[in-house]
Amino acid sequence: KTTTTYMVKSILENAGYKVGLIGTIEAIIGNKIIPASNTTPESYVVQEYFHEMVEAGCDCVVMEVSSQGLMLHRTAGIPFEIGIFTNLGRDHIGPKEHKDMAEYAHYKSLLFQKCCFGIGNIDDPYYREIFKDASCQVCTYSCRQKADVQASDIMLVNRNGQLGTFFKVNGEEYAVSAPGEFSVYNAVAAITVCRHYGIDQEIIRKALKTIRVPGRVEVIDNDRGYLLLIDYAHNAMSMENILTTLREYNPNRLICMFGAGG
Question: Residue 27 needs a FRET pair 20 to 30 A away by CA distance; which of 9, 37, 130, 250 works?
Fold first, then answer.
């Protein structure tokens, strides 16, 4: 969710919008950056941020809406124009979050009863469960099967130590400056949002080529002659994803230093 929100924000800003952001890493209101303690803040904090964004002249807001936020009514009363479903994994199951995947999926699905237009990753096994009670118009995206917005011809690229991906969406060529198939999924979700607003393809291409998300496969510049990345992989699923992805680029040597609270 985090990477996708930053991609959408970058594209909209390249198109001339002034964009606020609320998410796992931080809230961004104009030039003000507020470190986050929750992915989706308490309801009164969300409304306070919205007010500040209006005062700062923001045209739109991109925010991460967690299943916890939905369960605890932190987004109650907010009429979302667009909702996105990226994927579901076992990273929020436990005594302080959701008792099982069925409960997790149920609360995640509530977003699509609060928005006008829903965008969903049809390749995820939980897609049907998430959208079965949706009250919004639905648009699907995929990297593997027929969908409303479909990625194809995915290629991994390593140029001068910069890992990225090339791909096509409905025949149009794109590149994103982040490694792996999961980066393509995130990019396709962002492309689908911005196509909904009629944003020019060249603006989308330019934004995706230069996107950099703090702590999400983030390249740390150094003069030591090796590629240094920092990533928020915090559990078994995300750790496996990032290591498998990096292996696909055939590094001579891969060193992993980790501390994972999840």
Answer: 130
Half-sphere exposure of 104 (CA within 13 A, CB side): 17
Nearest by Cα to 110 from 141, 66, 153: 66
Q: What is the pLDDT of residues 11-48, one digit of tens each?
A: 999 999 999 999 989 999 998 999 998 889 999 999 99
Buried b (16+ CB within 10 A) or exposed e, 210-240: ebebeebbebeeeeeeebeeebbbeeeebbe
CA distance 2 to 52: 21
Residue type, 111: L
Helix-then-strand count for the chain, H and E: 8, 12
Residue 146 near residue 112, CB atoms below 8 Å: no
pLDDT per position as a tens digit, 91-140 = 666 767 767 778 888 989 999 999 999 999 999 999 999 999 999 999 99
Q: Report the amino acid identity of residue 245.
A: T
